[in-house]
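thread: overnight batch results

M.L. [08:02]
morning all. the overnight job finished for the chain we discussed friday. pasting input first so we're all looking at the same thing
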Amino acid sequence: MAFLIIPIATIPFLIYMFALMDHHRHYRVLLRYALLSAGTFAAIFSVTLIVNLHYLEKYGFPLLPTGSETMIMLMVCGLLLGVVLLIVVMMAIFSRTPFMQSIMQSSPVFIVISLLCLSMMMIFLFVLPVAEKSTYATAMKRADQSFDKMDKQTDQPIGMTLSLSQQICYSSSSSCRGSDYSNLVFLRNFEDRDLHVQVQIAFYDSSGNVMDTIETGTMTVAANETIPFLPKTETTRDTSLWNRFTIDTDERTANIQYRYRYKDAR
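M.L. [08:03]
and the structure it wrote out:
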């Protein structure tokens, strides 16, 4: 999905860039392009906001990424604007042009960088999370379907299922194709009581070889609760809920095997 919606989100920026390619356009023409760009931006923003609100209501995903992730993007945009301002100041000094005149002459550049930053912020805060939340929500649905079948076929108190094993990439480059596979495992307590659980999981590739194993300390799972199985490092890291995974492996995980110990939480 990201391959589709991210290019769409750059349309407002590209529209205005197209208008600026001809320096002889009348300002009214540029204004029409600016209004078209703003209208397109508003439409994309509205659609992605509605979708993000849907994921907030149905799955409890926060509307925005975490504060630290947002701060990183703000710092990137501030750095871009700062570099442009520094270049303008240096050019004014060497050309002995009045500072305000240099600013006015460079206003199209500042507008372009500002639009670029605005597009980047929209993509990062609203558009990209739509794709990531969609991937995570699909994994949750797949886990629920697996547990529904498991509940009918076994009387075990604890069940686990691998619902996602894929490369989380937004391009088709060779570096992306060679990236690790993110794996997401869900755990369900089938009992009508809270349980203390200890789990060990082995991850197997398509050839039946063990790629990695993980185990946890004692964790509490509420009655009939389904939770993503996440290491402590994932739950304490300041990342968005839809960017937390059980483990990364070099190859796609074909199967998992697990064992557990449990006791009543009371």
